[in-house]
Amino acid sequence: MPGYNHSAVFTESPKTASLSSVASLRDVKAQCNICGMRGLCLPVGLSPEALQQVSALVDTHIKLKKSETLYRTGTPFTALYAVRLGSLKTTVLAEDGREQVAGYHMLGELIGLDGIGSGYHGCHAIALEDTEICVMPFEQLETLARELPTLQHNLHQVLAQEIVRDHSIMLLLGSMRAEERLAVFLVNLSDRYCRRGYSSTEFVLRMTREEIGSYLGLKLETVSRLFSRFQEEGLILVQGRAIKILSSEALRALGGQQNGASESA
Asked: What integer is the mean pLDDT of 54-64?
């Protein structure tokens, strides 16, 4: 990644990832052609030859520990980032100075798209657990995309999905009742885990109740009360952050969704 000094360490914040966590993907043998998440990432549908070209482009990865920052508001935009392992939240500052959770990103997803328009990132990206990131230098990615129509199509598709996600969140926050918001959130997680080959009914919430409330525009007390209510009504089982969905159909009905319709929420 341009500007990286592999022997240096960030001094900006103790919560910012150290540069010692930056390494070559070749060193850890995590190239695109053997990555288990390639079916959800930009290389999906590429020929073996094209996949090798993308793999050569993505020659850096970053390891983040929980609470470390990938990039901050105002950081110059230089790359897109694919989540290979783990998960992150993106946050912005609300008008009153509070941190607002704007997104939850899991393995196989791209982040950093917010910087394409202005040339600077408009949010913080913070690891929710130990996380590995593949770095895609954007100038090189654009050049390669012009040569590979499938890659260009995939990039456009990712950008379109981001627009759809933004519209879905506007709908979520603008017109849904509190219980509908939480139901949609849980169904969305269920669908996303299912697409990645994990259980769609049992998973661990990586965000705290407070962070979920921030994301959904709800108070912490409301989120806690709704989790208890959903459990009492037989929709879910809750044990700390571990969730077991007992009635996916009921959750979908509560959120006004059909099967598989929540991926963009």
From this structure: 85
Q: Is the full-model pTM beyond 0.90?
A: no
In the beta sheet, which residues pair with residue 101?
91
155-184 pLDDT per residue, tens? 888 888 777 777 677 776 778 899 999 999
In this structure, the strands spanning 60-64 and 202-204 are: unpaired
Read off the tokens for 222.
Answer: 């409301």
Taking CA atoms, 31 is separated from 17, 24, 84, in Å, by: 22, 10, 11
Q: 129 with 206: CB under 8 angstroms?
A: yes
Strands annotated E in the chain: 22-24, 60-64, 69-71, 79-85, 87-93, 99-106, 110-111, 124-127, 131-137, 202-204, 236-239, 242-245
Q: How far apart are the C-alpha atoms of 157 and 161, rounded to whole Å?
A: 6
CB atoms within 10 A of CB 223: 23
Query: Alpha carbon of 179 to those of 174, 200, 234, 236: distances in Å?
Result: 13, 20, 14, 13
Tokens standing for residue 186: 């849980």
Report the Cα–Cα distance between both ends of the chain, in Å, rounded: 31
Task: Find the angle CA(95)-CA(263)-CA(50) to the nearest 5 degrees.
Answer: 105
CB of 92 within 8 A of CB of 130? no
Longest Cα pair distance anywhere in the chain, in angstroms? 55
Burial annotation 29-43 (CB, 10 A radius, 16+ → b, else e):
ebbbeebebbebbbb
Sheet containing 236-239: give its strands across.
Answer: 202-204, 242-245, 236-239
pLDDT at 61: 85
User: DSSP code of 258?
Assistant: -
